Amino acid sequence: MTVEGLSINLATTRGSWGFAEAVDGCLARGITAIAPWRDQVAAVGLDEAARIIHLNGLKVTGLCRGGMFPAADDAGRQAAIDDNLRAIDEAAALGADCLIFVVGGLPKGSRDIAAARQMVEDGFNSILPHARAANVPLAIEPLHPMYAADRACVNTLKQALDLAGRLGPDVGVAIDVYHVWWDPELAEGIARAGRENRIFAHHICDWLVPTTDLLLDRGMIGDGIIDLPGIRDKVEAAGFHGPQEVEIFSAENWWKKPGEVVLDTVVERFRTVC
Amino acid sequence: MTVEGLSINLATTRGSWGFAEAVDGCLARGITAIAPWRDQVAAVGLDEAARIIHLNGLKVTGLCRGGMFPAADDAGRQAAIDDNLRAIDEAAALGADCLIFVVGGLPKGSRDIAAARQMVEDGFNSILPHARAANVPLAIEPLHPMYAADRACVNTLKQALDLAGRLGPDVGVAIDVYHVWWDPELAEGIARAGRENRIFAHHICDWLVPTTDLLLDRGMIGDGIIDLPGIRDKVEAAGFHGPQEVEIFSAENWWKKPGEVVLDTVVERFRTVC
Q1: Can you tell me the mean pLDDT for A145-167?
Q2: If you count residue pairs, one on A and one on B, with CB atoms under 8 Å apart, how many are there?
Q3: Which pTM value belongs to this model?
Q4: Please, what are the domains in chain A?
């Protein structure tokens, strides 16, 4: 029996499982879509990861991640571009639906977020020809504003869509409920993303109250306050019917549990709360 | 010698000083504007606080705070309204420039942020007649989206201005750099707030990298990545020339230092980085 419409971002089982164990864990539960991270792929080897994916007919809802474009100098920005070109090749080798982008925050020592945002746009323009040649869709993930300084200076769906619009009709967005649930313009942003055919991925987890760490205290679906069915309805109404990808960073809770427990919980919750 | 253009939000010295000590500390450094919290006023007594303020000719750039409108039931919402009516009376007694509003987040058990936002608007409409009769300006403070669940479901300047626009021409906003610095629409939001004569307060502190606590790890001005002069220029260009109010919640750092050290640092930084 397969679990339709569910993808597991392998960050979710990072606490106990590498790439191969996570794939086995997914397959054992009828989950046939995954989204790995580049370090997890590198640890097993790109060719071996691609072999496992193709052998098992897995759908790859995204490769995490490209981005981190801003840097304090030209050399740093070029290094980021070079790394993103490699990420595109990896996404192509894995047959990923898209390469997910966490675009980067302020360069060290900078307080100029407008300049950082320009560096992001310039970086995308530098890699787009290669992405197009490799047929790898690029998905800009707007990150919660609490990450604006150190992880991503693209912080609303509207901002991501405006950027995608300047980059080209083939650039999209990843809509992660954790980052966008609070946005008073969320409904119109999702509808617009659908009209523009830019929804490439739909990530889910939950926002805990209280949240004890800015990065590593995401909640299991159902444990927080995000209206998951409400957002899913909007995403589906906008025309995206790909899997919902569960991505949970949880250093002090879920990453300390065995992968089996994490996945069993995800599957049970997915059936009841999403 | 006075420090022109500086106000101290008394949360900043909460770690070591109550109302009277904080006033003495400000006066000793030539700071003649403050913004107290209601619990600090209550601890010394409203009449005594008003006496101290008037005796020393202090400007009160705001009273913190009203708000917290959403609740799970009618009784809870009415209790919030009643408390806000008292807050208005206190702001009037202190001669505060405005009453600052942290509007509240999701009621316990709710995932419906649209409903919470409606409760906020309904709450404001319930208290506005009393605020107008008391001649107390109400300042909606949009809070950073990381507080949307548990503290304030008004999370962008645009959203606050839209709400203020529906409430009336006499309702304004408090622009706190900590909450809005990341907003890609900040410049247009500040300009609009100026055009509409809605800037009632300008709060400053800094965003630390890393930030270790969502609520209580604000930085001293100059220690983080917020472009304070850039935002100040926009606020002044929009027509607001009131004091910049330093408001720092810092449980593990500044609240553990003596008030003298905190204020000396604020004054030195204010002269060099703001």
Answers
A1: 98
A2: 75
A3: 0.98
A4: 6-273 (3.20.20.150)
